[in-house]
Amino acid sequence: MKLTILALLSLTTLSVAENCRPGIWYCGYNLLRRGNYMEDIKKELASFGRPLDGHHIYDSRFQCTHDYGIFFRGTCYAGKCNDGGEGKDDNCAWGVLEGRDMKFGERGDDLRSGEANEEVADA
């Protein structure tokens, strides 16, 4: 009987992972809720020379690509990356701390150049 109860409890705590939706921007913490994106997040942050600390992992935004990969778009102020709701972009409450706040290919910019954007968007 105990084994059956434990088996049922373990089934109720399982969550179904789903891919990101192409074109949508996600806070790091929302990507981690959707699936196993930790290594992808770390690779993206490292490719842009960003720290791999909790702030950058959870409060950075990533755009989902057509092949369900992710692309780093910028980092919000600590604790200010907001869930935009199902099917909508997540957003930074106080503007972007670092990075460029635009869609991939919007101006043809590639953040991988290594140059940090010093501008901070006003909220």
TrEMBL record:
Keywords linked to the UniProt accession: Signal
Signal sequence region: 1-17
The protein's name: Uncharacterized protein
Domain of life, per lineage: Eukaryota
